[in-house]
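COMPLEX REQUEST
Ligand: NAP
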Amino acid sequence: MENTQRSVIVTGGGSGIGRAVARAFAERGDRVLVVGRTPPALAETAAGHSGVHTCAVDLTEPSAPEAVAKAADEAMGGVDVLVNNAAVGGFGGLAELERARVEAQVATNLVAPVLLTQALLGPLENASGLIVNVGSAGALGLRSWPGNAVYGATKAGLDLLTRSWAVELGPRGIRVVGVAPGVIETGAGVRAGMTEEAYAGFLAGMAPQVPLRRVGQPEDIAWWIVRLADPQAGYASGAVLAVDGGLSVT
Ligand SMILES: NC(=O)c1ccc[n+]([C@@H]2O[C@H](COP(=O)([O-])OP(=O)(O)OC[C@H]3O[C@@H](n4cnc5c(N)ncnc54)[C@H](OP(=O)(O)O)[C@@H]3O)[C@@H](O)[C@H]2O)c1
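STATUS: Structure written out below.
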């Protein structure tokens, strides 16, 4: 991948980390396609960034991989970087889990990136491209995550995909890396069902537990994802990078 203008797909680009990633790539002159279900949110990401194109698609739909591949081809003529960032959360102990929420998490966080990545293998191989899977520092290594275990299982699964695809796709010139955010202030807790007050309380309660004594901002993650796409980062593959202020090693 040359250090020229690149073509980047960011799933979940209408909010939070995905929006910051999309804008960070756009600000360095790259073409970006943001994917999500909510057209106004995608449009807000693109506002003021002429290189950002939008693709309103539900990634859990069977037609989504082909639709995104077509949109990327039309808008950008190729794919150098795929950021699998879209995800849904959902808290609850085993006894409280509802089938629909469990299935939504597995479908969005695990099945959708598998099938989207599969659909983009051709353009990624043509570009000697990069796949970035956005996991979670809470699911790294041998950690447990009671109360958030289904979400954590999807993220641990994504990390295994990162390692496996790095081995499988490396000979085809495609790099695969994971980025595992810690607690990042994106509003995602509210989208996962918490009240505004509960989410603010959660962030305030987490900050003193982080070695760097603050929760992260979406730009803290975006900076790393853009750097991992630099040609100078071209020997990194198969690794999952925790960007969490040190929380996962406490
Ligand atoms: N925030 C944190 O503290 C934190 C910590 C660890 C890891 N992460 C990970 O970081 C990533 C981004 O998180 P975030 O905090 O920025 O969350 P977010 O703001 O809720 O972003 C998730 C995005 O995914 C999109 N999305 C969800 N389901 C979709 C579907 N079926 N089809 C297409 N798009 C879909 C959402 O857009 P629509 O609803 O409009 O479709 C949304 O823009 C996620 O993978 C998350 O698991 C976040």
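REMARKS: The pocket of NAP is lined by residues 11-12, 14-18, 35-38, 41, 58-60, 85-88, 108, 134, 136, 181, 183-184, 186, 188, 191 (CB under 6 Å). The two ends are 36 Å apart (CA to CA).
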